[in-house]
Task: inverse folding
């Protein structure tokens, strides 16, 4: 890659990480879109996982006081089996269909009025962890899927960003390990690109945290649902584009 492409990607990751730190989502989707611009999906998905590990750990550092550790514990129980199974079936599942279904779940979740559902039972967070790691091996971007589940539970903005960041960090760590050990992906081949983009995601995270603190909870909920709807529709359009091709 040329230095210009490196600069464009780094700037894009800074902006994407700002969005992630403000809303707890969308950044991963944007980063994956940028990586896919210059790389094949078989390369973009593992690299996206590695960058997201750093980005989520940065948000963990910035928001650690608001983490709901019980949710994290439940979420992490089946992460490894989910990623392992997803790695085994990496070449057998149709990512287009899965992307469409994830988008459908997100759209359904945001149109359910707040407070209309009973509290989430603990086992559902266990299932969420399994599905996020399994789907993440195949469709790469599962942040909006996790965020939509949290939206259904009316979690406060700081708690949503903090808890989701830890859950996603665990997911991405497991995924990266599976790509390294089971799939045999060579991360060392991209070490320079990874270093630049990891520094960019840390910078964007702390800028985003500063901006997020200036947004009210009500405005956050409104913008979060709008953003989720845009992402879900984008996933549908992307799935349709690949299906037509």
Result:
């Amino acid at each position: 890659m040329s230095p210009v492409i490196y600069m464009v990607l780094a700037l894009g990751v800074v902006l994407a990480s700002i969005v992630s730190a403000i809303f707890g989502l969308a950044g991963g989707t944007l980063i994956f879109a940028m990586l896919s611009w210059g790389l094949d999906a078989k390369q973009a998905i593992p690299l996206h996982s590695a960058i997201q590990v750093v980005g989520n750990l940065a948000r963990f550092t910035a928001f650690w006081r608001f983490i709901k550790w019980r949710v994290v514990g439940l979420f992490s129980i089946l992460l490894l089996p989910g990623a392992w199974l997803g790695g085994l079936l990496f070449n057998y599942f149709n990512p287009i269909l899965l992307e469409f279904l994830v988008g459908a779940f997100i759209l359904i979740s945001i149109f359910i009025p707040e407070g209309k559902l009973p509290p989430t039972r603990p086992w559902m967070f266990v299932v969420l962890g399994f599905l996020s790691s399994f789907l993440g091996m195949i469709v790469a971007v599962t942040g909006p899927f996790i965020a939509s589940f949290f939206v259904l539970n009316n979690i406060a903005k700081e708690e949503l960003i903090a808890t989701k960041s830890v859950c996603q960090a665990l997911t991405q760590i497991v995924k990266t390990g599976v790509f390294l050990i089971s799939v045999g992906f060579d991360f060392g081949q991209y070490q320079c690109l990874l270093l630049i983009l990891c520094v960019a995601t840390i910078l964007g995270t702390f800028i985003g945290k500063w901006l997020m603190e200036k947004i009210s909870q009500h405005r956050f909920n409104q913008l979060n649902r709008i953003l989720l709807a845009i992402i879900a529709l984008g996933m549908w359009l992307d799935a349709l584009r690949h299906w037509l091709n």
